[in-house]
Design brief:
CATH architecture: 2-Layer Sandwich
CATH superfamily: Schlafen, AAA domain
Distance between the termini: 23 Å
Number of helices: 6
Number of strands: 10
Order of helices and strands: HHEHEEEHHEEEEEEH
Shape: globular
Strand content: 25-35%
Strand order of the largest sheet: 1-2-7-6
Structural class: alpha+beta
């Protein structure tokens, strides 16, 4: 089921999420965890984003809020800070990210990507809803990753056969 995590965290179907709902979600300050990750707009298409997509698919699935900056609080938990709006749909839009994920992950990962527009429809943030994979393990750039709490970790060689047999690696 796609959009599972968008509904879990934003309490609304993905198609109805708007700037106000996103702002309210951010104001709650929910920390990153097993199924939630924030990525600033500088992460688009880069290795940490792609590795996190694989890690979530190899674990329990999750939601990446792409275009929201975060920083650690006093206890080192990463919490959302600001919206970092994207403005160029050709470079950073939903289609571009979908193509990047499908072409760079093995086997390809299918996820639901929702575009959240700002009030005047000129800028956007992407919500990447990743289901737990039915076809693990997935790799990016020759490496297998898993989710360990709020972190992405590279798998050891002995973990890969377990996940291929359907044993999802979660702490």
């Amino acid at each position: 089921m796609l959009d599972l995590f968008v509904e879990q965290y934003l309490h609304a179907p993905a198609a109805t999420v708007n700037e106000q709902a996103l702002s309210e979600f951010i104001s709650q300050g929910i920390e990153e965890g097993q199924t939630l990750d924030y990525k600033g707009k500088g992460a688009f298409g880069r290795d940490p984003l792609m590795a996190t997509v694989c890690a979530m698919a190899n674990s329990t699935g999750g939601l990446i809020v792409l275009g929201v900056g975060s920083k650690p609080d006093a206890h080192a938990f990463r919490r959302p800070t600001t919206i970092e709006w994207f403005s160029d749909v050709r470079l950073h839009g939903k289609d571009s990210l979908e193509n990047h994920i499908v072409s760079k992950t093995e086997p390809s990962i299918q996820c639901a990507i929702t575009t959240v527009l700002n009030v005047d429809d000129s800028q956007f943030v992407l919500l990447v809803d990743i289901p737990q994979s039915e076809d693990p393990p997935h790799m990016y750039n020759g490496s297998y990753c898993k989710r360990a709490g709020s972190r992405r970790e590279f798998m050891h060689h002995y973990e890969v056969p377990s996940i291929a047999e359907g044993v999802h690696l979660c702490p």
